[in-house]
Write a structure and sequence with these properties.
heterodimer; A: mainly alpha; 78% helix; B: alpha/beta; Rossmann fold; Alpha-Beta Plaits; 2 domains; 6-stranded mixed β-sheet; 34% helix
């Protein structure tokens, strides 16, 4: 059964970010306990809870993908109880993911209640609080784990978690007696939720153990094989005759090899724009259907912002493989490193422009349909476009792996990006919006200069396409 | 010897704390076929990457056609064909699209050669690359390297994924291609028999260092196994004494391996010269027989 514990360990340490989180968590726990000892109970409590959440935030999202990749090699089927060990390891990891925050919450709550006796009367007893948090997190972790396990088998599976989240209100409305839109609070509700989670694990386990060959995650492979492109899927391209298209010029050839996309209007512009607009409107329709009456303004604003910001993220994913693909062009084209950078930059802007335009249309439509004021759409699109521009240079700078400077810069810019997202969701225009624009606009030429300097010395030996699949295999 | 097309002088490459290449000095003349051989992780691919300018050298220099590799002008790069160990094909595109794209980029393409090779190798050109087998991908990658009649052809383990029939076909093509005296070929492989069939120069790389660079025939003549029979039992300290004696008798001589049993010893030496035999016999007071080695044995001895 050593495989069970090896899997359990891997679930918390497979990705470098997780290991970094664990180090930060350990340091913060020590600091939190220190604060507790000095009598700063409130601060210490929240500090400890925040730390433990950091340690367990990733396994529910990575676990399913990791299990798929670990199960893919056929040699696993030759190991006695190989899959069973992997499954048990994953189950324990998800259980631990729920246990750690529940335990910390209960301990801190008990401590606070003891300190302030008056709070004890109107709050849950620690055991109940533990059960409530454990069961809720365990149920959500199970749901995400199973969804992502099956979702990662397909490129389109990335939509699976969104569909599951969006489906909640619909199921809740159709079967109100299930109370699935409320947190379980009574002992009965908790028992039912826990039993439901365990049944889900048993069913999943039975299907997993009986499955034939398991393919590795498509998401990892899509990135490593440079398959992330703006091109339509194979079946559609073949149907439309796009797949047989040949380059009309040297510039077409350059673009195809750099972006991995087919030439022409349909695959270069129309398909990604239509896919983005239709996808977002379908998501909006799904959520709107599940609404229990009341206005759509809140959810509309949320979806509009997410749509607008998705353009930057999608562009980043399309741009990233270009750095590796440029290696092929070093010998085949007559461009030097600086010219290759300019070519990649031009394709990046083109990608961002197409996706931002499509996202803009979808955002405006969502705002219109949900009764959100057009000002929100305008502000959101302005901010998301500037953030997208910052993001493309951040991605183009990623030519030498993750060094400390890159990690710090990426963390800071991600924080700014996330802050912008929150500002847009809350509709807090005015000063915060101007502040964020003032921070990001001057960064664009600076990051461009930095990226160009890096491309001038780009080392294609260390700068191979991302090895996410291998990373996830541990 | 005609002008060198490839020159590396004291070339070194390190990534972080790992030194991958150290003090590599080699040259390949126009018209030569150079086989690069070394164990996994010896630095063959890194050497090719640095020579072709994909990666900057940490120390020393490398030049192609008289230009620094890392800043190679575009017109010089167009004279090079390269097929990497892990192909760089775009999964969703077909073989035909790859050919057309590469031809469009380079501006010249030997369509007769390309279609002959594609027919001979049975390449399905209208299937997306992701549906090709490993061997077919490798053939396509090699076709893309050859199609523009490059003056310098660099192939990183070109036969690794090929079946025996395809391998033989490929080597025959390589021989035909190499018959052009204006063309230089650099290729790496693990298959020693392929080297013997095709290469006229050999670079043996071990731990990031070139331990042999020279003509194949010369390599075979220069590495020998010496069977030493002493007139009395040899002492346990003999290996040290023997090494010192051998090195003193022939300064360039390098002892690759040595085994001692009783009054007999066997030593494999590099840079062997028949002229060293008499002084050695005299110095060791022993009978010495010299045995020639096959290329595979030589390769193993260099790594023993």
């Amino acid at each position: 059964m050593s495989g069970v514990f090896a899997t359990l360990k891997l679930m918390f340490t497979a990705v470098r970010l997780q290991r970094a989180f664990l180090v930060v968590t350990s340091l913060c726990v020590v600091a939190g306990l220190g604060l507790l000892a000095t009598g700063a109970h409130d601060g210490a409590g929240w500090f400890l809870i925040g730390c433990c959440i950091l340690a367990v935030v990733l396994p529910p999202f990575l676990g399913g993908i990791l299990l798929r990749n670990l199960s893919a090699p056929r040699t696993v089927q030759l190991i006695p109880h190989g899959r069973l060990q992997l499954l048990l390891g994953c189950f324990l990891a998800e259980a631990l993911t729920a246990t750690i925050p529940a335990l910390f919450f209960a301990m801190v709550a008990a401590h606070v209640a003891h300190e302030r006796a008056h709070l004890a009367s109107d709050s849950y007893p620690p055991a109940m609080l533990f059960a409530l948090i454990f069961v809720s997190i365990f149920a959500l972790a199970t749901l995400f784990f199973i969804t992502l396990y099956y979702g990662s088998a397909s490129q389109f599976g990335i939509l699976a978690p969104i569909v599951v989240i969006a489906a909640f209100p619909i199921v809740g409305r159709t079967f109100p007696q299930l109370h699935i839109r409320e947190f379980p609070t009574s002992a009965f509700d908790l028992s039912i939720t826990l039993a439901g989670s365990l049944v889900a694990w048993i069913l999943f386990g039975a299907l997993y153990l009986r499955a034939g060959r398991i393919s590795p995650s498509m998401w990892g492979r899509a990135v490593t094989s440079g398959h992330v492109t703006m091109a339509p899927p194979q079946w559609l391209a073949a149907r439309e005759g796009i797949a047989a298209a040949l380059p009309g010029s040297r510039r077409d050839a350059m673009r195809m090899l750099l972006t991995g996309s087919y030439p022409g209007f349909w695959s270069g512009i129309a398909y990604p724009a239509l896919a983005l607009i239709v996808g977002n409107l379908a998501g909006f329709a799904l959520v709107a259907t599940g609404r229990h009456g009341g206005g759509l303004e809140g959810v509309g604003r949320f979806l509009a912002v997410m749509t607008a910001y998705s353009a930057g993220l999608a562009s980043a994913m399309v741009i990233l493989p270009m750095i590796g693909r440029a290696r092929y062009l070093w010998l085949k084209s007559s461009l030097d490193r600086r010219q290759l950078f300019r070519e990649a930059e031009a394709q990046s802007w083109r990608t961002l422009a197409i996706l931002t335009l499509a996202a803009g249309v979808a955002t405006v439509l969502v705002c219109f349909l949900s009764g959100v004021t057009p000002r929100v759409a305008g502000e959101t699109l302005t901010l998301s476009t500037v953030s997208g521009a910052v993001m493309i240079y951040l991605v183009l700078m990623h030519t030498r792996g993750w060094r400390l400077a890159d990690i710090i810069l990426s963390t800071l810019l991600s924080a700014v990006w996330f802050f912008g997202l929150i500002v847009s969701v809350l509709g807090a225009g005015g000063s915060p919006l101007l502040f964020l624009l003032a921070i990001q606009i001057p960064l664009i030429p600076l990051l461009r200069a930095w990226a160009l300097a890096r491309w001038t010395h780009i080392d294609w030996m260390i700068n191979r396409p991302l090895q996410l699949a291998q990373l996830l295999r541990g | 010897m005609s002008e060198p097309v490839v020159i590396a002088q004291n070339l070194g490459k390190a990534i972080g704390r790992d030194t991958i290449l150290r003090d590599v000095t080699v040259a390949a003349a126009r018209g030569s076929v150079v086989g690069i051989i070394g164990k996994n992780g010896a630095g063959k691919t890194t050497l090719m990457d640095v020579l072709l300018g994909f990666s900057p050298a940490t120390s020393g220099s490398s030049q192609l056609f008289g230009h620094d590799s890392f800043t190679l002008p575009g017109q010089i790069r167009g004279r090079i064909g390269f097929a990497p160990q892990q192909d760089e094909l775009v999964n969703m595109l077909t073989g035909r699209q790859h050919v057309e794209l590469t031809a469009a980029l380079l501006g010249r393409w030997n369509r007769a050669l390309a279609s002959r090779l594609q027919g001979a190798w049975g390449l399905p050109m209208d299937r997306p690359v992701q549906k090709l087998s490993g061997g077919e991908r490798q053939k396509l990658s090699t076709l893309l390297a050859l199609g523009h009649d490059p003056e310098l052809l660099v192939l990183d383990e070109p036969v690794a994924a090929l079946d025996p029939i395809s391998r033989r076909q490929f080597l025959q093509e390589l021989l035909d291609i190499a018959a052009n005296p204006q063309r230089t070929v650099l290729f790496s492989t693990h298959i020693v028999s392929d080297l013997e069939r095709v290469a006229d120069q050999i670079w043996i790389i071990r731990g990031g260092t070139i331990v042999w660079a020279g003509p194949l025939d010369h390599l075979k003549e220069s590495v020998a196994r010496l069977h030493i029979t002493a007139r009395q039992p040899l002492p346990a300290t003999l290996p040290t004494t023997l090494r010192a004696t051998l090195s003193a008798a022939v300064p360039r001589l390098e002892v690759l391996s040595m085994r001692v049993a009783g009054s007999r010893a066997t030593a494999v030496v590099a840079h062997w010269d028949e002229a060293a035999l008499a002084p050695l016999r005299e110095a060791l007071e022993a009978d010495i027989e010299v045995e020639s080695l096959g290329l595979e044995d030589i390769f193993i001895e260099f790594h023993s």
